[in-house]
Design goal:
The complex is a heterotrimer of chains A (about 260), B (about 300) and C (about 290).
Chain A (H helix, E strand, L loop, with lengths): L1 H14 L5 H26 L6 H35 L3 H5 L5 H31 L7 H31 L3 H16 L11 H8 L10 H5 L8 H25 L7
Chain B lengths: L4 E10 L2 E11 L2 E6 L6 H8 L7 E6 L2 E2 L10 E4 L11 H10 L5 H14 L15 H13 L5 E5 L7 H16 L3 E5 L3 H7 L2 E6 L2 E7 H7 L5 E7 L2 H8 L5 E6 L4 E6 L2 H15 L3 E5 L5 H8 L3
Helix pairs in contact in B: 2-3, 3-4
Chain C lengths: L21 H14 L3 H8 L1 H14 L5 H4 L10 H8 L2 H15 L1 H8 L3 H5 L5 H19 L1 H15 L3 H5 L3 H24 L5 H26 L9 H12 L10 H22 L8
Helix pairs in contact in C: 1-9, 2-6, 3-10, 6-9, 6-12, 6-13, 9-12, 10-12, 12-13, 12-14, 12-15, 14-15
Classes of the chains: A mainly alpha (about 260), B alpha/beta (about 300), C mainly alpha (about 290).
Chain lengths: ~260, ~300, ~290
C-alpha cells in the first residue's frame, strides 16, 4: 500500500508540474508577500516605523494565510483529488492499474498537500524576511517563523484531508466547502466556550502563541475571542482529525463506483 | 482449453436502468469481438471485466479469481478506454513512463517499455510534446500504447481503432493478431463491423443488456433459421437462370436486382452452391459473380435484433 | 431547417436583417442555470433583502399601525435615497450576488473551453462580440433580477402605497439612480464573472476564483487599513468601490473618505481590463505549441 501510494504521489507530483492553474495559485500565495513589500517600501520612503514588522507578520500575514489562503488552497486541491479524475475521465487510468484505491487517494492527497505546503511556506518565509529583516539576528523572531510554519503545515494537512473527504462524499463539494470556510470556520471560531472547539481554526490558533504582546489592532484580530486549548491537545486533535478524514475518504472511494457523463 | 475469463450470471443495474442482464459466458484465449449498438451494454460489460464497476448480481472471474477490488489481477490486463481523456499537461513520454511506474517496476524497466510502446505506435518523435497538442489519431495511438506497454495477458479494447488512419489501423490490427498468436486474450469492441470481421470470427453480440449470440460468425449466421440466406448471382441471362431455379425446393424466393443480377433466397446454401455450376454449364450461362450480401456481421446483427 | 435524411443541404435563404445571434446563447445559459440543484435556492436567498426592503416600504406608509416597531427610531423606516442606497450597497446582497454568479456564471466560458466548443460557436455566423454578449446576457438577467427589478419595485410600491406622486416629486432622481447603479453592478459583475470564467477550464477552479478575488480584495483592504489607517486603501476592495459609487449615485455620503470618482475609475479600469482579456481569450482557434 505504501509503495503504491508513493508511486501515485510521484505520478501526480510530475503531472501537476505544468498545470495552467499553477500560475494563479502562485499569484494568490504571493499576494501577502506583495503586501509585505508595500509595507517595507512605505517604511523606506516615509521613514515612519509605524507598526513594527514582526507585528505585521504575526498579525496580517498569518491572518491572510491561516484564515484565507490555506483554506482556499485546501478547498481547491482537496476537492479535486477525486472529482478532477471523474470530471476529466482519467480515473480509469488509475483504477485499472494494480493500485489499491486508498493508495490512489492517499498518494494524490500527499502530492497536492506537499505542493500547497511548499507554496505557502515560500510565501511566508519571503514575507518574514521582508518584514523582519532588522530582527534576523534575534532568535525569538525565528522561533515565531518556525511556529508559524508548523501551524500552516498542520493547517494545510488538516484542511486538505477534510476537503478530500468532502470531495469523495459530495458532488457539490465546492459549495459546501465555501460554506464551511466562510460560514462555519469564520463564524463559529468566535463563539464563546466549547463551541469554538468545533472548528479546526481554533486548534491551529491555539498552537500559535502571540510572541509579541497584543496592543490591539493586528494581533488582537487573529486571537480575538480565542479561548486556547493546550498546544499538545491541539496538535493531537488535528492529527486525529486528519487521520479520520483520510480514512473515511479512502473507505468511501474504495466502495464507490464512478460513471463518467457521456 | 481452460477459459480465461468467465462471467457467471452477471447483471448490472444503474438505479432502475438495466445495464447488463444475466450474462453467463466464457471468453477463451484469442480475439473476441464485442458487438452491439450504443447503449447495448458493451462498455458496461468491459467495465465489469476490468473491475471498474461492481456487479449487482453474479461475478466476473479471471483465472478463477473475482475481479472486483482484486488489484493483484490488474497487472495482468490492459484496458484501452473509449473516452478521449488524458492528463493534458503531461508529455506523451511522461504519461506512458509514469503510468508504467505504477506497476512497481524499476525506472529502467519502465523507460524501456515506454520507449518500445512509443516506437510501435510511431509517437517517438512527438513524445516530448504536451498531449494537449496531439491530434486525434496521436491521442488514440497513445491510448492504445498505454494499454499494451506493460505486456499484459489480457487486453480489453473499447473502440481501439477510432480516429486512426488506415495505415495505423492495419498496424494495430496486426498487433492484435500477434497477441492472439502468443496465446493472449483480447476483447475488442467496435461499431465498425468490417474491422471486427478483419480481427476475428469469434464474436459476442449484445443488445439491450443481453447476449444475443456468441461464437463463430458464420456458425451464428447458419443458426438463424428464420432468415434464409441471400445469394446474388450476376450473369448474362438472369431470367433464364431464375426460370431454371424456380422449381428448386432449396430456393424460397427469387427477385431481380441491378443489371444482370438475380437475388435468390435459400435455406440450404450448400445445395444451391452445388447446383449453380451445373446449371451454368447446362444452360451455357456466363456467370460473372456470386456473392452472399448477408453473410456478414451487419446482416447477422440486424437479423438478431429484428430489423 | 431540418437536415434531410440523405445528406445535409445548403439553406437557400438569406439571413434575417435584424439578427440577434446572442439571444439563443442567453436563453440556453439561463435555462441551464435553473437546472442546477442549488441555484434556485441561492437565487431565492439572494432575493430575501428585496423582500425585507419591500416590507419596509409598506411599513413606512403604515407607520401608525407599526408604531411599536419604530419606538422613537422613526428614521429607521424613512424611505429616501439612503434607503435605496442601503439596499444596493448592502453586504449581504453583494455577497449573494457573488454566490449566484458562482452557480450560474462560473462555467459560462470555462465549460466551452473545456469541451472545445468555441470552434463550434465560431463555425456559425457568430462574431466574438455576439458570443460575449450572449454570455453577458445570462449574467445580466440574474443581476438585474436582483437589482433593477427590486429597485424599481420599491419605487413603484412607494408611490402605490402613498397614493400620490409626492415621493417622486421629492426624489425625482431615484429611478435614474436605481437604473444607473443596477447597470454599474451588472456590467462590472458581468465582466468580472466572464473574465474569471475565461481563465480556467475547470468550473470548480473558477468558482473558487470568483469567491477568492471578491473576498480577498476586501481582506486586503481591511489589513492595509488596519496598518496604515488610510481610507484610500478602500480602492483595493471591490465591495468598497461598489459601495462608494452606489452611494454617490444616490446622492448619499459614501462609507469611506475617498472621492467616489476614484472608485468609479478603478471599476472602469477593471472592466476595461476584463474586456481586453476576454477578447484575447475567446477565439475559435487555439494554437498549441
Amino acid at each position: 500500500m505504501l509503495s503504491a501510494a508513493c508511486s501515485v504521489f510521484s505520478f501526480f507530483w510530475f503531472a501537476a508540474r505544468r498545470a495552467r492553474r499553477n500560475r494563479a495559485v502562485v499569484l494568490v500565495c504571493a499576494l501577502p508577500v506583495l503586501a509585505a513589500g508595500v509595507f517595507l517600501l512605505r517604511r523606506i520612503l516615509v521613514g515612519d516605523p509605524g507598526v513594527i514588522g514582526p507585528r505585521v507578520f504575526s498579525g496580517m500575514i498569518m491572518t491572510f494565510y491561516l484564515q484565507f489562503i490555506v483554506l482556499m488552497l485546501a478547498l481547491f486541491y482537496g476537492t479535486s483529488i477525486i472529482s478532477e479524475e471523474v470530471e476529466n475521465k482519467t480515473l480509469t487510468y488509475l483504477t485499472t492499474r494494480p493500485l489499491a484505491k486508498p493508495a490512489i487517494l492517499l498518494g494524490k492527497y500527499a502530492a497536492y498537500t506537499v505542493r500547497s505546503i511548499i507554496l505557502v511556506s515560500a510565501g511566508v518565509v519571503a514575507a518574514f524576511l521582508l518584514l523582519d529583516f532588522e530582527q534576523l539576528g534575534d532568535g525569538a523572531v525565528w522561533l515565531v517563523l518556525g511556529r508559524s510554519l508548523a501551524v500552516l503545515v498542520l493547517a494545510v494537512i488538516a484542511y486538505t484531508a477534510f476537503f478530500a473527504f468532502l470531495g469523495t462524499f459530495l458532488k457539490k463539494s465546492v459549495l459546501f466547502g465555501l460554506f464551511f470556510c466562510f460560514g462555519w470556520e469564520n463564524i463559529v471560531q468566535y463563539f464563546p466556550g466549547t463551541t469554538q472547539r468545533l472548528t479546526l481554526i481554533h486548534y491551529l490558533k491555539s498552537i500559535l502563541r502571540p510572541e509579541i504582546p497584543a496592543e490591539g489592532g493586528l494581533q488582537s484580530f487573529l486571537f480575538f475571542r480565542l479561548e486556547p486549548s493546550p498546544a499538545g491537545t491541539a496538535v493531537l486533535t488535528l492529527i486525529l482529525f486528519t487521520a479520520a478524514a483520510l480514512a473515511l475518504a479512502a473507505a468511501l472511494f474504495a466502495r464507490k463506483e464512478y460513471l463518467f457523463e457521456e | 482449453m481452460t477459459a480465461r475469463i468467465r462471467a457467471d450470471k452477471l447483471s448490472k443495474w444503474y438505479g432502475n436502468v438495466l445495464g447488463l442482464s444475466d450474462v453467463t459466458l466464457d471468453i477463451e484465449p484469442g480475439v473476441t469481438g464485442l458487438l452491439g449498438p450504443n447503449g447495448a451494454g458493451k462498455s458496461t460489460f468491459m467495465k465489469l471485466l476490468t473491475g471498474q464497476l461492481r456487479p449487482s448480481i453474479g461475478v466476473v472471474l479471471i483465472d478463477g479469481r473475482p475481479v472486483w477490488n482484486n488489484t493483484a489481477l490488474f497487472s495482468r490486463f490492459g484496458f484501452c478506454p473509449e473516452q478521449d481523456a488524458f492528463y493534458e499537461d503531461m508529455t506523451g513520454w511522461d504519461f506512458l513512463y509514469r503510468l508504467l511506474l505504477l506497476y512497481g517496476g524499476t525506472r529502467e524497466e519502465a523507460a524501456v517499455k515506454a520507449r518500445r510502446a512509443l516506437e510501435f505506435v510511431e509517437l517517438s518523435g512527438d513524445s516530448d510534446r504536451l498531449i494537449r497538442g496531439y491530434s486525434r489519431g496521436m491521442r488514440q495511438r497513445l491510448k492504445f500504447a498505454q494499454s499494451v506497454a506493460h505486456d499484459p495477458d489480457i487486453l480489453v479494447l473499447d473502440e481501439p481503432l477510432n480516429g486512426l488512419d488506415p495505415l495505423s489501423k492495419r498496424k494495430i490490427i496486426k498487433l492484435i493478431k500477434d497477441f492472439k498468436s502468443q496465446g493472449k486474450t483480447v476483447i475488442v469492441s467496435s461499431h465498425v463491423l468490417p474491422e471486427i470481421e478483419a480481427l476475428t470470427r469469434s464474436i459476442i453480440l449484445i443488445h439491450q443488456g443481453k447476449i444475443l449470440a456468441q461464437g463463430d460468425i458464420h456458425y451464428i449466421r447458419d443458426l438463424i433459421d428464420g432468415h434464409p440466406h441471400v445469394v446474388a448471382v450476376k450473369c448474362d441471362r438472369p431470367r433464364d437462370l431464375a426460370a431454371r431455379l424456380v422449381g428448386e425446393e432449396a430456393v424460397v424466393d427469387i427477385r431481380f436486382g441491378g443489371a444482370g443480377e438475380v437475388v435468390l433466397e435459400t435455406r440450404n446454401r450448400d445445395r444451391l452452391y452445388g447446383l449453380l455450376p451445373g446449371l451454368a454449364v447446362e444452360a451455357g450461362l456466363d456467370i460473372e459473380e456470386i456473392t452472399s450480401p448477408d453473410d456478414n456481421l451487419q446482416a447477422v446483427f440486424d437479423y438478431l435484433i429484428g430489423k | 431547417m431540418p437536415i434531410s435524411e440523405r445528406g445535409y443541404q445548403h439553406w437557400p435563404g438569406t439571413l434575417a436583417e435584424r439578427r440577434r445571434p446572442w439571444a439563443p446563447i442567453t436563453r440556453l445559459g439561463i435555462r441551464l442555470a435553473f437546472k442546477r440543484k442549488f441555484f434556485k435556492f441561492a437565487l431565492g436567498v439572494s432575493l430575501l433583502p428585496a423582500l425585507v426592503f419591500t416590507a419596509g416600504v409598506y411599513i413606512s406608509e403604515k407607520i401608525e399601525d407599526f408604531k411599536f416597531m419604530a419606538r422613537g427610531r422613526a428614521q429607521f423606516l424613512s424611505v429616501d435615497p439612503a434607503y435605496f442606497k442601503a439596499y444596493f450597497t448592502g453586504d449581504f446582497l453583494l455577497f449573494m450576488i457573488v454566490m449566484v454568479l458562482v452557480l450560474a456564471g462560473a462555467g459560462l466560458i470555462a465549460d466551452d473551453l473545456k469541451h472545445n466548443s468555441l470552434q463550434l460557436y465560431f463555425a456559425r455566423p457568430l462574431r466574438k462580440r455576439d458570443y460575449l454578449l450572449g454570455k453577458m446576457g445570462v449574467v445580466s438577467f440574474f443581476l438585474l433580477l436582483q437589482t433593477l427589478v427590486p429597485g424599481l419595485l420599491f419605487f413603484l410600491l412607494k408611490l402605490v402605497f402613498s397614493g400620490s406622486f409626492k415621493f417622486f416629486s421629492r426624489y425625482p432622481g431615484i429611478p435614474l439612480a436605481v437604473v444607473a447603479d443596477s447597470l454599474v453592478l451588472t456590467v462590472f459583475f458581468g465582466l468580472y464573472t466572464l473574465v474569471l470564467s475565461s481563465l480556467g477550464r475547470n468550473r470548480r477552479f473558477v468558482s473558487i476564483l470568483l469567491f477568492l478575488v471578491y473576498i480577498f480584495s476586501d481582506i486586503f483592504f481591511g489589513v492595509f487599513y488596519g496598518i496604515f489607517r488610510l481610507p484610500a486603501f478602500c480602492l483595493l476592495s471591490i465591495k468598497a468601490n461598489l459601495q462608494q459609487v452606489g452611494a454617490a449615485l444616490f446622492g448619499v455620503p459614501g462609507p469611506y473618505e475617498t472621492p467616489w470618482i476614484y472608485s468609479a475609475f478603478v471599476l472602469a479600469a477593471l472592466s476595461g481590463a476584463a474586456v481586453f482579456v476576454l477578447l484575447r481569450k475567446v477565439k475559435g482557434v487555439e494554437v498549441i505549441r
